[in-house]
C-alpha cells in the first residue's frame, strides 16, 4: 500500500472529490489537526448542499421504513435526477405520512376496542346485565375475581354492611351490599380490603355483556376493514415507488458522502490537502486519472510505501523521494497527517474466503502479519472431520452448511455456511476412512470388506478390544500434528520478526522457541529417557505399526542432541527476554494440548456407540484382546450362535428395538433423539476444541491483529447509474 497526498486549490476540490469517488481507490486518512499551528490548516467544512442531502436521505430512509421497502424490491438501475428529489419526493412524503398517521390512529382505535372486549369478558362470565351493576342510591356494588368464601366472610364481618347478596359466575363475582345509615360511600369496598379479590371497573354501558361484545366486535371489524384499506394503499405506494426510493437513497448517500468528504481534509482559505492509502500498483492509475480530470490544478504525491523495515519501530515507513516520488508540498516528503498504519486487504477467494470469519473473530490481521486464513482452511476442517469422522454426520453438516451458504447473500452466516461445508466434507471423508455411518460399521461391511475385499477399513477409532491399540495410536498422531502445527506458527513468527526487526531478533525471539520445541520432542521420542515415555509413542509409526512410516524413535545420541538444542534455545530466549524463561515448559504443554484431538474422537465415537447399543443392542465375538463388538441390526444373536464363522461369546445389551412393538417405537425415538444430541455436541465439542487449538496454540505464536479493513472512498452502485 502507498500513502498519497492530494493537494489543490479549494476551487477544484469538488472536481477532485468527484474523480476520487469514481476511482474507489483512496482509503482516506482523517486529518488530526497536527498542522494547525505550523501551517494554519483546519478541518474542512462540508460542501454546500450537504445539509439538504442529509435531510432528504433521512426522509427517504424514513419512507422506506414506513413502506417496508427491501433491497430485493429493485429490478433495475436507474438515473435519479435532481428534480426527482424535489417536489416528487415531497408529494410521496406527504401522502405516505398522511396514510401512516391514519394507520396509527386506526391501530390505536383497534387496540382500544380489543381492550374493551377483554374488559367485558369477566362480565359475560358473571351473566348480569351491565345496567344492574350500578346506579343505586341505597346499594353499593363491587365486581371482581377471587374466591367467594373469603369475600363473603369479609362482608359478613363488616359492621357498616347491614345486608348483602353475592351473584357468581365461574370466576367473577358481584357483591351487592346495603350500608348502614351514615356509612361511607366506600363501605363495601373498604370491607374487602385485605381479601384476595381483584376488583373490576364496571363499564359505562347497559344491556347484556354479550350484546355489548357483539357491538364491539362489529366495531372491530369496521376498524380492521379501514386499516386494511390504508395498508393496501401503502402497499400500492411501496410497489409503485419502491424502486425510486431505493435509487434515491443510494443517490443521496453518494451525495452525502461527497459533500461531507472535506471533513476528513486539511484545509485553508485557499487550499486543501487530502491523504490516504491506495494499492501501490494502482498509483499511476490514480494520479493519471486525477490529472486527466482536473489538470494541473491538483498535485498528487506518493508520500511513503508500506514496506517491511528492520528498525523495529517504524513498520511501514519507506520514503519514496529517493525512488522517484515527488516531495510533499507541506513538509518535504515526510508523513503528514495521522501516523496511521495502512489498511488491510485479505486476498482470499473461493473456498478459502469464508474462513476469514474465524480469523476476524480474533482480530483482523495487521498489515505486517501473515494472514493465517489459508492455514485455517487446511487445518480446521481436518481437525473437525478427524474428531467426528462419520459419513452420516458429515452429510448433515454439509447440508446445513450449504443451506446457510446459499440462503444468505453475504455476511457472517454465509461465511459460516462455507466453513460448515468444509467441516462437513472432511467429516464425510474421515467417515469413509473409518467405515462408519451414524456409528454403524456399514461402510466397512459393504465397501471396505464387501467391495474391496479388505479385512478392515484403513483406520479405526479403537472402541472394541480388538482395535484398542488405535485409541493409543491416535494420541501419538495428535502429538505429531501438534508439533507440526506449532512449528508452523513459530516459523511464521520467525519470518515476521526477520522482516520487521532483522535476523538477530528473529533468532532470539522465534528461533529460540523453534529449537526448544523440536529439541524437547526429539529428546522425548528417543532412547535417551529409557522406559519413561509410553511405548505406543514408538510403535505407532514403526514399520509394523498402525501407520507404518518406519519410525520407531530416535537413537540415544540423537535424543541427547535434541535436549542440547532445547537448552540452546532456552539460552537464546533468555538473551532476548529473560522474563520469557518462565515459559520454558510451553513446548511440552502446547503440544500435549493437541491430544484433545484423539480424546474427542474417542468421546464422540463412544456417544454414538452408546446410542446404537441402547437401540439395537451389542453382542460380542471372540474373547480378550481379540473380542469384537457387533450391533444387532437385523436381530439379536445369543451366546453360542455363530456370526460369520465366529461364535458369539457375550451379549452386552439386548437392545430396546428387540423388545416388542413398543420397543420398536421407543427405540426409533431414542435413535433419532440420541443422534441429534451427538450431532449438536459435535459442534460444541469438536468445533470448539478445533477453534481452541487454532486460537490458543497456533495464533498465539505469531498473530496479534489490529488491522483496519481497506475501505476506499466511493460507492458500489446497486440501484443507480450515471449513464
TrEMBL record:
Function of the protein: Component of the A-type ATP synthase that produces ATP from ADP in the presence of a proton gradient across the membrane.
Highest taxon listed in the record's lineage: Archaea
BP GO annotations: vacuolar acidification
Broad class of the protein's primary localization: membrane
Family (UniProt): Belongs to the V-ATPase 116 kDa subunit family.
TM region positions: 374-405, 417-443, 471-495, 507-526, 546-576, 597-620, 661-683
Manganese is among the record's keywords: no
Coiled-coil residues: 89-116, 213-240
Location(s) in or outside the cell: Membrane
Xref: InterPro entries: V-ATPase_116kDa_su (IPR002490)
Membrane topology, from the record: Multi-pass membrane protein
Molecular function in Gene Ontology: ATPase binding; proton-transporting ATPase activity, rotational mechanism
Keyword annotations: Coiled coil, Ion transport, Membrane, Transmembrane, Transmembrane helix, Transport
UniProt protein name: A-type ATP synthase subunit I
Cellular compartments per GO CC: proton-transporting V-type ATPase, V0 domain; vacuolar proton-transporting V-type ATPase complex
Record lineage: Archaea, Methanobacteriati, Methanobacteriota, Stenosarchaea group, Halobacteria
